[in-house]
Amino acid sequence: MKNTHFGTWLKATTLLALGLMLAGNLAHAEDTMNWDKTFTLSDKVIHQKVSYPNRYGITISADMYRPKDFDASRKYAALVVGTPYGGVKEQGAGIYAQTMAERGFVAIAFDESFNGESGGEPRHISSPEIFSEDFSAGVDFLGTRPYVDRNRIGVIGICGSGAFSLKAAQVDHRIKAVATASMYDMSRVIRNGWQDSMTDEQRSKMLDQLGEQRWKDFENGAPLLPEGFPSKPTDSIPAGLDPISSEFWEYYAMPRGHHPRSHGPFTATSNLAFMNFPLLNSIDTISPRPILFIMGEKAHSRYFTEDAYRMAAEPKELVIVPGARHIDLYDRMDMIPFDTLENFFTKALK
Hints:
Elements: H1 7-14, E1 45-53, E2 59-67, E3 76-82, H2 92-102, E4 106-110, H3 128-143, E5 148-158, H4 161-171, E6 178-181, H5 186-192, H6 200-220, H7 243-252, H8 271-275, E7 291-296, H9 302-311, E8 316-321, H10 328-331, H11 338-348
Parallel strand pairs: 3-4, 3-5, 5-6, 6-7, 7-8
Antiparallel strand pairs: 1-2, 2-4
Helix pairs in contact: 1-7, 3-4
């Protein structure tokens, strides 16, 4: 696939486009306990909304899930679950956290800084350093709960947060095991283009555009936010979208995965940090802590996982889910290998 075919989704993260930030997307942590997820609350878990600061003083909003038979006198293994890139905790990350809680873990699904219900201004900033830090902030929180064994904390990263979780584990030895699903390396794709097809000339032009945009943002007093997914779910995929963009539209813009706080793209100048901040440059140093890589057989994103698996040191495991596309590992309970995830973390966090 050529770089120009990556379509609407990559264009939203790499090119300048018109768009305004909707006030409805600016909500921070709510005081209510209304269920607002894209999935059903399980009767096998206890759900609680929590918040905590990261190292930068930004308040992170998260959903915590505990087993229904939770015993506060025990010490549990715990998991921090990150969202797909542009997603929120009410979508796929919450499905993973809830399901792992059904299987005996304490788990939190969190919104990255500047997004969802988490704090941080301006809204919809994307930062590879801070998004990686947000995983460690989750470890801070869980490791200070009296019912969590701080020596038994792992992380799960889905899509873009897969690389952020690996980046966090490269320096945070408190993370004892990492699992990724449908991983995207956002630094690689933004700097090098789809399947590394961006030329030096194209990259230079993009940097010129982003530099000019910084002046415009400064003069306007706010960063440019490209147009995102519609605020209400749609019934069909727009004609003319390429296969990758159509797949993301199916999840984020249709009833399957739509959530009003999941805007999609990030501020245009966020891309500068990704072009200057490699995510997987020291992935081999995670060893001897184990990594589980999960990808769909038909995922357009396979090459990110395959390359990360090759770069990682042992112990490592690669699981290929038959017939699964990229987005199927966000929410398809019949495809996500939760038995494998349970066995992996039970062994790694014993």
